[in-house]
């Protein structure tokens, strides 16, 4: 009797749990589908989903994305706000102001009203271009459109002001941010520190860091490490690194580079090699110039550390090219090295870096022609995106690619004329 009762109770619990999970799934599914079904797009649900899987800011190339959006528009199927917002994310990633202008005009044509995220993206690109005037013009447009600025938009404006070292504008936007009832976040503090660093006001930057009312993020620590490196303050850098470790934050190539350089300046070679090992374990390789500085420092110290030089060269990824200005001194300093293999390795690295830089220069030129800012930092990534439009990690043809081959084809001659005229209008 008790066994039957136990089995019945277990059955009831299983049924109730199944019903609860089923209801939960239905709620989540409807939450996902609702924005698609009420979209202003004329694409059907299958097409919308397929495009969303392809248009990922970290995977799709700007070439393929522009073709997708323009072909959808020219075929009379208005892209939805999700597709356009993803396109804006890609243009922001590659710092393409002309592409942002194109997607802005398209969003207006399909009846969409750009919100604060769009303007924040445009102002971020303006900051990278050190174009404060255009950023201010966009902010004036936000006011005219009666759009309520959010924290990301204000952070973008502070970034644009900090990039040109305009402390007065930074203070003005901080005051506006607070008057709108918003609070400074970790990114805002990092931007204020960066403004002080660019102006050479290192003590002021560290005061801002020490007085943060929120927990600092990795961006704030990056600026703090850079300030310590420029001040050549090894003890303070190690103090901040201990705090950085306690917070268990994401470490970047910039933080490792600053810590290595400040260690080398103070002849703390073992600590510098420890940070090299840490960057290798976390796959956050240091900046190219840091490799050159480290090799010269290790070869110029009283007891030349050939073994450490060999270890750095062995672990240096091929896409991290040491600036060629360092190689002459490095080759001269190793001319009397007893390790013949090390000398051969340095010559081999030099030849590989020369060939790689020549290849990268072609992509830099192409990105520059597209209007990208700081193109060398994107050239290596762009190289992987360029051949097939989508990152090489995707090797198999998915349903999304088949959808594009079926629905987004090359236009006819009349459509080509329309496309060229439309692109000329938005360029």
UniProtKB/TrEMBL annotation:
Residues 108-211 form the PROP1-like PPR domain. PROSITE patterns: PPR. Pfam families: PPR, PPR_long. Keywords: Repeat. PPR repeats lie at residues 185-215. This is Pentatricopeptide (PPR) repeat-containing protein isoform 2. It comes from Galdieria sulphuraria (Red alga).
